[in-house]
Each structure stands twice: as C-alpha cells, then as structure tokens.
Amino acid sequence: MSGNPDSRIEIFPGDITKLDVDAIVNAANAQLRPGGGVCGAIHRAAGKNLREACAKIGGCDTGQSVHTDGYDLKAKYVIHTVGPVWHGGDRNEEALLASCYRTALKIAKQIGARSLAFPAISTGIYGFPLDRATGIAVATVRDFLQQDDGIERVVFSVFGPEAEAAYRSELRR
Ligand code: AR6
Fold first, then answer.
1. Based on the structure, what is the number of domains in the chain?
2. What does the pLDDT look like over 79-125, one tens digit per residue?
3. Most buried residue, 76, 101, 107, 150, by CB count within 10 Å?
4. How far is the CA of 131 from the centre of ligand 1 (A)?
5. Sign of the CA dihedral with 129 first, then 134, 135, and 140 last
C-alpha cells in the first residue's frame, strides 16, 4: 500500500522528551504513575497536569495503550503503553510487547498524530532483553507502516550506545 516503510523510520539518539513530534510514547506502568526511567523523565517534562490526567484514567493493562495531552512537552500527545515485565520469555512477553507497539500506533492514527516517537519499551527496569525487544519493535512498526500510510514519521528514541547499535543493526536487516 505505502512503499518502503523504512523511509518513514528514523533513529534519534537521546532524550525523547525533547522531540518535536505529534506524540511521544511512554513506557508506563499499569497504574500510570510517574515512576522512573523514561516515564519519570516524561512526567517531569510534561508537568503535574500529566500526573493528574493519568490518575483520572486510573490504569492500563499490559500490552495496551491510552493517551493524554502532552501538556508542557513539545509533543501534543503522550501515548502511554504498558510493556511486559520480562520473566524469561514464557509468559507471553513477546506478543505483549508487539501489542504495545501496535496499540500505540492505532491510537496515534485515531487521534490524528502523524509523527510519533517510541522509547525502547520494557528494555530498562522491566528487563526485556534488548536485542529481542528491538527485533519486535522494528518488525511491528514496519508491518504497521506497510499497511497504513496515515503515519508519516516514526522515531525510535534510543538512550545510550548499546540501544543505538541494536536499532541500527535491526534496521539494516
Ligand atoms: N528518553 C529516551 N529513552 C529513555 C529515557 C529518555 N529520557 N530515559 C530512559 N530511556 P524504562 P521499562 C530508555 O526503564 O523497562 C518506569 O518506572 C532506557 O534506557 O524507562 O518499560 C515505568 O513507570 C530504556 O532503554 O522502561 C515503569 O514502572 C528504555 O528507555 C517501568 O519503569 C525503557 O526503560 C517501565 O520499565
């Protein structure tokens, strides 16, 4: 339907909160609390209105996504997705991680966000092995973009040289 999906994918080494995109994706927890990692950074940058909006929603299941405004961020929206905690791979972690990317992209489409940025969901505090997570992230985004031309730009925000190398290598495949 929409040409080579890789022409709409890019890598940004650095802090996702700085990105000027329509929506950034948050690697959230099921209670939608500020937490640490990229989630803590997004909440700090967006301000207390984000915490209040998340409290109003109340929670989100693993593998699912919800959205709020972006408040003090450049991004108009935050799409909160709850990645799986890695337990060794036999608790449906891979399918749940793919579902995070898919449901976030679906919401982006619904709210009219044409550019969005993902962090490496689940690969920090939740312990998902980086290479496996990167494979799932890239494959799921490519697949979605191939079926759909509503999203113009997907940025993988990678924090640190190891994550950057993993994404660059996966995108060369
Ligand atoms: N910009 C982009 N990526 C970042 C940033 C940033 N500012 N900060 C960290 N990362 P994590 P998880 C990378 O732990 O594993 C929170 O407390 C980081 O290097 O943030 O899904 C939530 O509330 C890693 O590659 O998320 C949950 O409780 C990636 O973001 C829990 O952690 C994800 O690491 C979620 O754990």
1. 1
2. 999 999 999 999 999 999 999 999 999 999 999 999 999 999 999 99
3. 101
4. 16
5. positive
